[in-house]
């Protein structure tokens, strides 16, 4: 492609809208243009990158026996209502674009396609003899993000590969799940990226287990924790660990004591001279279920620990049937305005005890009349602990479960794992942290959707059984920007060869020099004939502008027809290392073919 004929406009300054380096570079280098909030046009250079990523995905997916299809972007609400996710996606999470057509039918723009594919399987797959089957697509998806940001990282429209498998047994599902684990590792390795596979929370997709694939980058939105032995890695939302050892309590008898201005854990430890591990912290949450019922939750957790709200949300969703509900619409720490709607008296915030009285809750049809009490595992074995006294400015010390306070019957793991904790698999391993960008996620869905949508097949014994399902996604457009976030320097993008829009760019410093143009034209033809994708910068621009653009755009190799032509040579520059060498014109094709082969 000749740059004089390409739609390419580069920018010298960072656009005001861009927050992270990859977003800035893609805009400056002319790969994308913003059309609206969270909506971007993929310009010619970017489309070539996306096509290359998509081709790698196709090759690896096809190698597993998966079949490509294309599913509708617009989906009937009835399918989502049947699965029970319409309220979750349109109200609780609010991420689905929903609309009403001229016939007053509710529709949604697909953020994901579990319901659609399950409906297809229900209609077409009748017998165990048709199982397992695995379909995938590469498709535009939509999410009504509250705050679109970071360009293609968190957009409202994006390109995604998603696949769905159907099985007659969990064992069969696990085989495909392992196939996808291998295929995804191949995909990200072939794309030239440094990544880590981590245990993950399944979120609104659901299922019994899932794994994320993270491209490691400082600008990543996700925190991951891992151990140095490589045997454990997880998204912090899912991570488990062994907390620090409890320091022996300095208190031997129960006592109530004035602790003025000690509403935080740090202030309590300083005032009483104890460890945060000796404190039972009581945190109040407010959950609104899709049945309209508001439930007040009191969580007991060790003073040096924090509540993992993703884990807490998951525990509360399990309890939804108790409140005639399917899911949670919101989970918050109620501020004073929220408390005024249900509290009979101001709560002693910062001084709440595990036995906070239900009398604080006013009688109402919308609000559950008792606190839902949950205890994190970290508080079970605490002895002679410190906690609130249900009176502002006072704590109690030397308290014990079964004496002064009642341990809740619901014991759960809802603490947030953190750096410095010990590994569960090996207590000598200490958790470390890194930041990552989620580019892939695989799920073992089980029968969540097939049971909800009554999607069954005839088993070998003649009975009707629900499909066992798996789900596998890759953010194609997000992967492209993740590569830029991981691969750049102060001058611009450094594309991995496998997904670069072109392999080499030919730069002519002076297009009025017939000798330079003649050699450049000859190399352009020879390179393309040899299967080396060449970009020809034949623009009437200053040499400095062309070199800056070449670095900014990030093509792996650059050929310059400059001063060395007098010696029958051209300059070959490697973008990643800035290494430069003069090579004979007749050797250019062979040398580049060798470089591409060695980096494939």
List keywords for this structure.
single chain, 600 residues, 25% helix, five-stranded mixed beta sheet, alpha+beta
Low-confidence stretches: none
- Overall pLDDT: 93
The total strand number stands at 31
Strand content: 25-35%
Please give the radius of gyration in angstroms: 29 Å
User: What portion of residues is helical?
Assistant: 25-40%
How many helices in DSSP terms?
A: 14
Head-to-tail CA distance between termini = 22 Å
Shape: globular
Which structural class do you get from the secondary structure elements? Answer: alpha+beta
Main sheet makeup? 9 strands, mixed
Task: Note down, in words, how this protein is organized.
- With 600 residues, the chain is of the alpha+beta class.
- It is 25% helix and 28% strand.
- The protein is built from 14 helices and 31 strands.
- The strands form eight sheets. Strands 3, 7, 8, 9, 10, 11, 12, 21 and 24 form a nine-stranded mixed sheet that branches. It has a five-stranded mixed sheet with strand order 16-14-15-17-20. Strands 28-27-29-30-31 form a five-stranded mixed sheet, sandwiched between helices.
- A hairpin with a 5-residue loop joins strand 5 (97-100) and strand 6 (106-109).
- Helix 1 (21-28) crosses helix 11.
- The longest helix has 21 residues, at 170-190.
- It is globular and about 95 Å long.
- The two termini are 22 Å apart.
């Amino acid at each position: 492609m000749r740059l004089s004929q390409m739609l390419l406009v580069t920018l010298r300054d960072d656009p005001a809208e861009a927050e992270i380096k990859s977003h800035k570079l893609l805009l400056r280098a002319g790969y994308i243009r913003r059309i609206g909030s969270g909506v971007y046009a993929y310009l010619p250079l970017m489309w070539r990158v996306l096509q290359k990523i998509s081709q790698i995905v196709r090759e690896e997916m096809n190698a597993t026996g998966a079949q490509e299809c294309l599913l509708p972007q617009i989906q009937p609400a009835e399918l989502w209502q049947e699965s029970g996710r319409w309220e979750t996606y349109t109200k609780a999470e609010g991420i689905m674009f929903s609309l009403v057509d001229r016939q007053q039918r509710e529709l949604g723009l697909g953020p994901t396609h579990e319901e659609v594919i399950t409906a297809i399987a229900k209609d077409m797959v009748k017998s165990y003899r048709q199982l397992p089957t695995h379909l995938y697509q590469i498709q535009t998806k939509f999410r009504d993000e509250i705050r679109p940001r970071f360009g293609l990282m968190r957009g409202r429209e994006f390109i995604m590969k998603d696949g769905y498998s159907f099985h007659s047994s969990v064992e069969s599902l696990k085989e495909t799940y392992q196939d996808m684990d291998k295929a995804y590792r191949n995909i990200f390795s072939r794309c030239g990226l440094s990544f880590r596979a981590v245990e993950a929370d399944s979120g609104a997709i659901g299922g019994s287990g899932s794994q994320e694939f993270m491209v490691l980058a400082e600008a990543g939105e996700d925190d991951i924790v891992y151990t140095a032995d490589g045997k454990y890695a997880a998204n912090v939302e899912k991570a488990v660990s062994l907390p620090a050892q409890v320091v022996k309590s300095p208190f031997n008898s129960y006592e109530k004591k004035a602790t003025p201005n000690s509403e935080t854990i740090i202030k309590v430890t300083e005032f009483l001279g104890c460890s945060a591990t000796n404190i039972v912290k009581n945190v109040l949450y407010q959950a609104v279920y899709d049945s309209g019922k508001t439930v007040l939750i009191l969580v007991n957790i060790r003073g040096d620990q924090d509540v993992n709200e993703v884990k807490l949300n998951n525990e509360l969703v399990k309890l939804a049937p108790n409140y005639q509900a399917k899911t949670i619409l919101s989970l918050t720490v109620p501020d004073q305005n929220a408390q005024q709607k249900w509290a009979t008296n101001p709560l002693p915030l910062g001084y709440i005890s595990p036995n906070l009285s239900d009398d604080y809750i006013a009688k109402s049809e919308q609000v559950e009349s008792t606190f839902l009490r949950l205890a994190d595992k970290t508080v079970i074995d605490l002895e002679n602990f410190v906690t609130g006294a249900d009176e502002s400015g006072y704590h109690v010390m030397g308290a014990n479960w079964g004496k002064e306070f009642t341990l809740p019957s619901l014991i759960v793991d809802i603490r947030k794992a953190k750096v410095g904790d010990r590994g569960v698999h090996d207590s000598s391993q200490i958790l470390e942290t890194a930041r990552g960008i989620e580019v892939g996620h695989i799920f073992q869905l089980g029968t969540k959707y097939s049971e909800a949508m009554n999607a069954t097949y005839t088993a070998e014994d003649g009975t009707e059984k629900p499909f066992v399902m798996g789900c596998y996604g890759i953010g194609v457009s997000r992967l492209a920007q993740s590569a830029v976030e991981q691969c750049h320097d102060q001058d611009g993008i450094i594309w991995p060869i496998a997904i670069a829009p072109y392999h080499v760019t030919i730069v002519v410093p002076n297009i009025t020099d017939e000798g330079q143009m003649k050699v450049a034209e000859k190399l352009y033809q020879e390179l393309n004939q040899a299967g080396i994708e060449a970009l020809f910068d034949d623009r009437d621009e200053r040499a400095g502008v062309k070199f800056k653009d070449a670095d900014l755009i990030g093509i792996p190799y650059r050929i310059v027809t400059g001063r060395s032509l007098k010696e029958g040579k051209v300059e070959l520059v490697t973008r990643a290392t800035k290494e430069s060498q003069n090579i004979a014109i007749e050797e250019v094709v062979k040398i580049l073919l060798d470089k591409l082969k060695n980096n494939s």
